[in-house]
Amino acid sequence: MKPVKLGLLGVGTVGASTALVLQNNAAEIARRAGRKIEIVMASRRSLAAGMPEGSGDIELTGDPFAVVDNPEVDIVIELIGGYEPARELVLRAIARGKHVVTANKALIALHGNEIFAAAQEQGVNVAFEAAVAGGIPIIKSIREGLAANHIEWLAGIINGTGNFILTEMRDRGRDFADVLAEAQALGYAEADPTFDVEGIDAAHKLCILSSLAFGIPLQFDAVYTEGIGAISTEDVVYANQLGYRIKHLGVARRGNGGIEMRVHPTLIPEKRLIANVDGVMNAVLVQADKLGPSLYYGAGAGADPTASAVIADIIDVARTITTDAQNRVPHLAFQPDQIVDIPILPITEITTAYYLRMSVDDRPGVMAEITRIMGDKDISIEAILQKEPASGVTRATIIMLTQRIREQQMVDAIEEITRLDVVHGEVHRIRVEALDGGA
Ligand code: HSE
Predict the structure, then answer these.
(1) Per residue in 385-396, is it b (16+ CB within 10 Å) or e — as a string?
(2) Is the dihedral of CA 106, 152, 305, 310 positive or negative?
(3) Centre of ligand 1 from the C-alpha of residue 238, in Å
(4) I want to staple 134 with a disulfide (CB 3.0 to 4.6 A). Which of 47, 114, 235, 300 is the partner?
């Protein structure tokens, strides 16, 4: 049987690894796919850099459109990243009747609805396993493995760079900028690392996971997004003392009133497996009505793990074009006419517990004033920790954990507490998720 021919767009960290793994594991891949798979043409910005040594006989061009237009190419592998020209290239490939494999979460989160509609019309596949959680086959697991279930919620550590930074800060007290530079050198970080630090990369991925879990259109703008920039070493230490770990989490939950989609730093009880996912590793915990909880863990970034997911998609497409040309598995897990527009809750309507840290005057009555405000707002306090001030210091730090409440109650309480003369500076707030079956 004729080999399946690939056109590769982008020979960066992931592109180079994809070319090498396809070559190095060629025999095993052909056994799995039922066909030989080979890259016939690749594009990269700097032609002088060439193709990585050992990646075979591949025609290299500086023009990505030449790859898409090459009639020999069956599958276009988009590893350029970013919105444009990736969107234009992918739509053009689809219009030419080619299948597409991409690792581009920004592209799928923002333009996936348009891309999938075009692919559906043309009867081609757009596969994007590598877009979420690097090498972990989370998309296949949700879309196929959990297809019998109602998914109730999912929560994931889905940005390797952010998790690497938080872990190094906690374990080695390393400086934020220094760890970020290392993550960039290791090929974990996005081309624009603010996407990692500000939670945008995680929001892209959560948007995709939410659509797969609940059968809703992709709507990146509806994801509430906070990054890790405001987390201090102090908070990490206090959280540990209370038996929690701080993780940057993406949470999607289906409730009676609508769907929560949010990305923010979160306290998680340290006994949870997911609280112990460190470094560049990712994990996604899925609560499904029939399976119950299941946890998917693995490398969330990096050249080879991401190439692993890219090539799994290539093999899937190769199998499909070998057997029949129809989409065997719908792009967003649900049949296109079953995608429903369930309302997305504003962040003020979500329900969660909170960790609070504030600096207050160390004198009688202060705690009573604060707890009165909490009581007035119907907020129940789960734990309070007050550190004894050093001698000669007149201010104390108070740490509180609340029970689960609506975010608006917390916003109102914080506003009132901040206005008290005895409270100094900002009231620091981090959401807490127990991540047990009922949460
Ligand atoms: N920058 C991303 C991360 C790469 O750190 O998780 C994988 O999507």
Answers:
(1) eeeeeeeeeeeb
(2) negative
(3) 28
(4) 300
Tens of pLDDT along 378-410? 999 999 988 777 778 889 999 999 999 999 999
β-sheet bridge partners, residue 76: 7, 100
300 in ligand 1 pocket by Cβ < 6 Å? yes
User: Which residues have a Cβ under 8 Å from the Cβ of 184 and sit 6 or more positions away?
Assistant: 193
Query: Could you give phi then psi for residue 39, rounded to 5 degrees?
Result: -80, 125
Beta bridge partners of 299: 281
- Give the tokens for residue 155: 């929560």
Three-class SS state of 126: strand
Domains of the chain: 4-127 (3.40.50.720), 143-298 (3.30.360.10), 347-431 (3.30.70.260)
pLDDT per position as a tens digit, 313-346: 999 998 888 765 444 556 776 767 778 899 999 9
Supply the pTM of this predicted model.
Answer: 0.88
Q: Is 161 in the pocket of ligand 1 (CB under 6 A)?
A: yes
